[in-house]
Design a protein that fits this description.
homodimer, 266 residues, alpha+beta, Arylsulfatase, C-terminal domain, five-stranded antiparallel sheet, globular, disordered C terminus, Vacuolar protein sorting-associated protein 75 (chains A, B), identical protein binding (chains A, B)
Chain lengths: 266, 266
């Protein structure tokens, strides 16, 4: 009996130890982002001087295209800048800012910022405030996990999308299919809240995480990969323009593959 | 022309920026390990109080079994303790310590420590010293990457493995097949160097990384998962022994899936 009690005590100790590790991980994440913030700021400025940087990154990324509609790429090609900023106090919360240039008569130039907040959730959909019950929930047996939520943010849709633009669809019942198609576009993602699964942009949380944990942290590596692929394709043509040559960095392909793990933020 | 020069300058700036990020990542990794070290130490002590902890973790892990031979599990079940320690100055280097209890007449109790060092490598197999040419390599166009190497470490093999034990095979030419079989066992892994691909334990680097980046950091989560699976299986039987019940921690399965990324060390 004393043995069993000792084991139970050790298991309780291990549960506390796991909590201590989670606290360390959050502290490390904050430390990392505090150190990276000025480096990202310098990088944003440098990226702004490379024409079509984000067009190259977004059009060549192996997964980004799976989230949106093929017709969206006309407007993805309008993206001049992408920035992700993490809250200093709460690095689980972040915003994605996207700057588009316009297309005459179809699509206005605009800068759109969508914010995401990491919230604690119990038994699936009961959402509790951010951080609030981190301590008080200890006695509770219900499983608790974290997920992203967001609020809809205004974005001007292309005129070419009028038929699927939810603000321009008069009869939502009659145009259910068009409404749903619209919600699956990149513009639909800006309306995503995380609270109406099946009725809004699919996998909105994953696309937010793709920006924050993959596309933004590794955009330079993706750009270089894309340029390398282009250089390989053009290797038999005359290619004496040094600015067009792939940028050599001390990294191999395997390393690039791994990066979505290394700089992952949760 | 001035445009092209500006772009080339920006690309060079981005290469420097990537190097600055790598420096930050290494600094963050050191910070993380410095914070985790005392937490891991407490945890090692707690784990030592839970009988068969590592037997449960190693036998239930979805990937570990793929690295070794099925017959090795008789000796995996002898593992009473696993510890990973990262070098304070150089967190890319680490050691894996495994403690076995003995099996009467077959296998002696022993504690074996295998050290791994992360080295810079150029054009595949030319190995350079750890850290040495991090700066001097800048002008070099060759791609450089990091990989693990190790030295063989003494371990006593089970008597049952005499026929495949490389130290007991008299004629290596005649017993090539037995020799190779031996090298594929867990005991073969302790001889792995990383310098003789095809002739030593297969994927020795990956097994080292599995211990350091997955099994050791997430062993408590794996233990809980395994206990939960057991509890599910026994859910219709009388089960009033609280020490045998799954330990509830604030994490969901998705989170567990993700952990190998979150605490990943490179």
């Amino acid at each position: 009996m004393s043995d069993k009690k000792q084991i139970a005590d050790a298991l309780r100790g291990l549960a506390d130890n796991e909590s201590a590790m989670d606290v360390v991980e959050k502290q490390v994440e904050k430390y990392r982002l505090d150190l990276l913030r000025p480096v990202y700021k310098d990088r944003d400025e440098l990226i702004g001087r490379v024409p079509s940087f984000w067009m190259v990154v977004l059009s060549q990324h192996s997964n980004f295209a799976n989230f949106i509609r093929a017709s969206d790429f006309k407007y993805v090609d309008c993206i001049d800048d992408v920035r992700v900023e993490w809250d200093e106090a709460n690095p689980g919360n972040f915003s994605v800012n996207i700057k588009f240039h316009g297309l005459e008569g179809d699509f206005p130039a605009q800068s759109v910022t969508k914010r995401f907040r990491l919230v604690k959730v119990k038994d699936d959909m009961k959402v509790s405030g951010n951080d609030e019950d981190r301590e008080s929930g200890d006695d509770d047996d219900e499983e608790e996990y974290e997920r992203l939520l967001s609020d809809p943010v205004d974005v001007e849709w292309p005129v070419a999308y009028d038929s699927i633009n939810p603000d321009k669809i008069q009869d939502k019942r009659a145009s259910k299919k068009e409404y749903r198609t619209g919600m699956k576009t990149l513009f639909g993602w800006f309306r995503w809240t995380g609270l109406k699964p099946g009725k809004e942009f699919p996998n909105g949380e994953s696309l937010a995480e793709l920006f924050a944990n993959d596309l933004y942290p590794y955009c330079v590596k993706y750009y270089i990969e894309a340029q390398r692929d282009l250089a390989d394709e053009m290797s038999d043509s005359d290619n004496d323009d040094s600015a067009e040559e792939p940028l050599e960095l001390p990294s191999d392909d395997d390393e690039v593959q791994d990066h979505s793990k290394k700089r992952r933020l949760e």
